[in-house]
Specification:
The chain has helices spanning about 1-20, 30-45, 45-65, 75-120, 135-140, 170-180, and strands at about 125, 130-135. By secondary structure, it is mainly alpha-helical. A hairpin with a 2-residue loop joins strand 1 and strand 2 (about 130-135).
Amino acid sequence: MLLGAVTVAATAAAVELFSRGVTFIPNPGIFLLLAIAIAGFLWGLAAAMAGVPVAIAAALYAYADPGAWMRYTPGNLVRVIVFSVAAPLAALIVGVLKARAERSLSASEGRYAALFQATPDAVYVQQDERIAYANDAAHDLFGASPDGPPARRLVGCPIWERIHPDSHARVRGRLLAVTGGTGDVP
């Protein structure tokens, strides 16, 4: 949660420094809303909501008349009110959308894993020339056991231990074709 408040505070400070040193920023609220959205996207609803009070305080400061804390022109008073409503709404929307996306991704991964396990064909995923994941059919084909002793497991095993030496060159060529972008796999 603290990361959201820190992100918004850092954004407010950067906007103020930029506005004083480089060029005046007439509407700093947009940058504060963006910081809230980023916090919500990266760390979720709690982080975004933690940034809201910081953003409102920064908006109160930014929209105040120069040299007069808490005194506003009618136009800037409207900006402060609108911002005070928009900031928590933006945090809520981004936080809810992030949670929904995470649930959807989790469900999709679950369906993929179920399909991966249910296929009757032996399938394994290799990464850096080691087996990273293998379905039950692959374990059966290789006489391996996912829960057995390390010598009988597929996951973590170098792929070359499971491929006949006479086929190494052909398999290496196919891997290069896929990973190197040199053409289609035959």
